[in-house]
Design a protein that fits this description.
- This protein is of the alpha+beta class.
- The protein has eleven helices and 21 strands.
- The strands form five sheets. Strands 1, 4, 5, 6, 18, 19, 20 and 21 form an eight-stranded mixed beta sheet that branches. A five-stranded antiparallel beta sheet has the order 13-17-14-15-16. It has a four-stranded parallel beta sheet with strand order 8-7-11-12, with helices on one face.
- The longest helix is centred in the N-terminal third of the chain and has 27 residues.
- InterPro entries: GSPS_pre-ATP-grasp-like_dom, PreATP-grasp_dom_sf.
- This is Glutathionylspermidine synthase.
Length: about 425
């Protein structure tokens, strides 16, 4: 299922292409999308394609329907785990965090989520849920409409800003954030993508907000503060919760663990809530396979059969599978095996984690324009679900393992 696409330079001519691309790069950078080029492996890598995918309206609607169904299954799974808390040991998450993950309460398990799907002639399949710290928001909200405008095409993904605003209003109610309270926003200050994403979300927050670099947060014995001594009661963190456990102070003190203790003791409230990390574990996918008939209604079972790939904590009887670390990110630690043969693998990251084995479902080929001419890679569809509502698609084209350098490409429908 290769989608047709529009080019800005036909036929391809390197100098003309690069000139047009650089003009577009300046336009998106002025709006906050500043990583159209990524410097990795000692060279510049193209991350943004200026091609425009022509996506059938029926496929866009199906992804939206699948996103709602998948989100409902995740919500039901979260509720079932809260009823049988002994299951948390299967998630591969540090025991230090278990009590925090299982608090429950009136907040959503996640307000900002992205589900990743593979679409082919054989159907639409979920490969994972990014429920803790999803990115791709800037691409969908800022770069997407600008690229559509460049092509003179309609932007079908225009709901994200409204849904983010609705999410903040819901969070203000759920967290009881007063009009005089400050919501602090943080991420690793050196990380451009995260910093711009945080700025985008902060700009849509309707009450008092301040940015604080992760490196500047002061964790004290009794609370968490800014360098100026202001107490931090509410914190939006675009930083994986499990990473905090490894954070140390200048003399080796366990400041990350102390921060987690403050969260447990209600000294500080974080967004996304800790339950978002619980549902981020890929072991959740194996639980959904294992508990399909026990936990779910017939309608939910039908959604699982339609959209979820069978996933297990052992290779089971699978001849073709994707082995995934339960808390891996950006394709790290993944191995793809087809009919007993290794097609691709990453051995650099997350080798010490428990793994799950997910039935292999090949990604379709997709051609887009790049600096080096037409490139054919593998297509992955991200679907943002914000405050429970499908809020925009995020297409990437890359290798079999979708890593950090897989290229973003905008789309229109017809």
């Amino acid at each position: 299922m290769m989608l047709p696409y529009k080019s800005l330079t036909e036929p391809f001519e390197p100098d003309a292409y690069l000139k047009r691309w650089e003009q577009l790069e300046r336009k998106v950078a002025a709006k906050g999308f500043t990583w159209a080029t990524l410097y990795e492996n000692y060279e510049d890598n193209q991350y943004m394609s200026d091609s425009l995918l022509m996506v059938p309206s029926s496929l866009a609607r199906e992804v939206e329907n699948a996103s709602r169904a998948v989100h409902d299954v995740f919500q039901k799974t979260y509720e079932q785990i809260l009823k049988d808390r002994s299951i948390v040991h299967k998630t591969g998450i540090s025991v230090f965090l278990w009590d925090l993950l299982l608090e429950g309460g009136k907040t959503a398990f996640s307000y900002f989520t992205r589900y990743d799907f593979i679409a082919s002639a054989n159907g639409l399949k979920l490969i994972e849920g990014n429920t803790d710290t999803p990115v791709g928001l800037i691409e969908s909200a800022i770069a997407q409409p600008l690229i559509c405008e460049e092509h003179g095409s309609k932007n079908p993904s225009d709901r994200m800003t409204t849904h983010v605003k609705n999410a903040w209003n819901q969070i203000i109610r759920d967290y009881n954030i007063g009009s005089t309270d400050t919501l602090y926003f943080t991420c690793a200050d050196w990380h451009e993508e995260d910093k711009q994403t945080v700025q985008f979300l902060m700009n849509l927050y309707p009450q008092r907000a301040k940015y604080i670099p992760l490196e500047k947060i002061v964790v004290e014995k009794d609370d968490v503060r800014t360098p100026e001594g202001e107490r931090i009661d509410f914190l939006y963190r675009l930083y994986p919760l499990e990473y905090f456990l490894a954070e140390e102070g200048p003399t080796g003190e366990k400041i990350g663990e102390q921060l987690v203790v403050h969260i447990m003791n209600k000294k500080i409230k974080v967004i996304n809530p800790p339950s978002a990390l619980l549902m981020q574990s890929k072991a959740i996918l194996a639980l959904i396979t294992e508990k399909k008939t026990e936990w779910f209604t017939r309608q939910e079972q039908a959604a699982i059969e339609k959209y979820f790939l069978p996933t297990y904590d052992t290779a089971h009887s699978l001849q073709s599978y994707v082995k995934k670390p339960v808390l891996g990110r950006e394709g790290g630690g993944i191995q793809i095996v087809a009919n007993g043969q290794v097609l691709d693998e990453d051995r650099d990251y997350y080798q010490d984690q428990p793994v799950v084995f997910q039935q292999y479902f090949p990604m379709p080929d997709q051609t887009i324009d790049t600096w080096d001419g037409p490139y054919t890679g593998k297509l992955l569809i991200g679907s943002h679900v914000i405050n429970g509502e499908p809020s925009g698609l995020f297409f990437r084209v890359g290798e079999r393992i979708t890593g950090n350098l897989s290229m973003f490409v905008a789309y229109t429908t017809g």
